[in-house]
Amino acid sequence: MSNKTHESDVAFIKALAELLNENDLTELSVKREYGEDDTLNVRVSRRGEIVTTQVAAAPMAAAPVAAAAPAAAPASTPAEDPASHPGAVTSPMVGTVYTQAEPGVPAFVSVGTQVSEGDTLLIIEAMKTMNHIPAPRAGTVKRILIEDGAAVEYGAPLMIIE
To answer: What is the domain extent for residue 61?
Structure first.
C-alpha cells in the first residue's frame, strides 16, 4: 500500500469524524474497498471508540486509528484532547482493554469511583499476557474513554482521574 493511500485513509477517517460531530450522530460505519483483497472497514463512535480493520494490504493501514481518535472522542470543548488533560491515564502498551477481571463480574472502576494510587483500573492484554494497569495517583474517575474489548495504541488516553 502506498503512502498516498495511507494519507488518504487518514483524511477519510478525519472526514468521517467531522461528519459524526457536525450531524450529531452517535456512530458511523463505512467499508472502503480498494480491490479484491484490500478493504478498509471503519467504525467511528461518539463513545470514544474507533475500530479499523485492514484486510490483506499492509500492516501500516491501522495507523489512522490514533490520528482520528481525538476528533471523534466526545469532549467538553471541541478542541480538547483527552491525552493532554493533566489527569489522563494513558495506555503503556498496544493491546486489548478489559474493564473487568472476567465476563459477568463488575468493572474495576466506573465514573465516580474513588481510587487510590496503585488500584487496578483495567487490564490490557498484550501478547496473551494480562497486564493490570494501576492508578498512577489517588482521585476520582471522571471519564472513561474506552470500552471493554477495544483495541488501544501506546499512549492512547484510557480515562481521566482528578
So the answer is: 3-72
pLDDT tens digit at each of 162 positions of the chain? 445 556 777 777 777 777 777 777 777 777 777 777 777 777 777 654 444 444 444 444 444 444 444 444 444 444 467 777 888 999 999 999 999 998 889 999 999 999 999 999 999 999 889 999 999 999 999 999 999 999 999 989 999 999
| Single residue among 72, 98, 123 that ends a domain in this structure | 72
For 159, the enclosing helix (H) or strand (E) is strand 157-161
Instruction: Give the chain's domain count.
Output: 2
DSSP calls for 63-113: THHHHHHHHHS--SSTT--GGGSTTEEE-SSSEEEESBSSTTS-BS--TT-
139 and 102 share one domain: yes
Whole-model pTM above 0.70? no
Task: Evaluate whether 117 touches 138 at the Cβ level (below 8 Å).
Answer: yes
Buried b (16+ CB within 10 A) or exposed e, 79-104: eeebbebebbbbbebebebbbeeeee
91, 158 contact by CB (below 8 A): yes
Amino acid type, 90: T
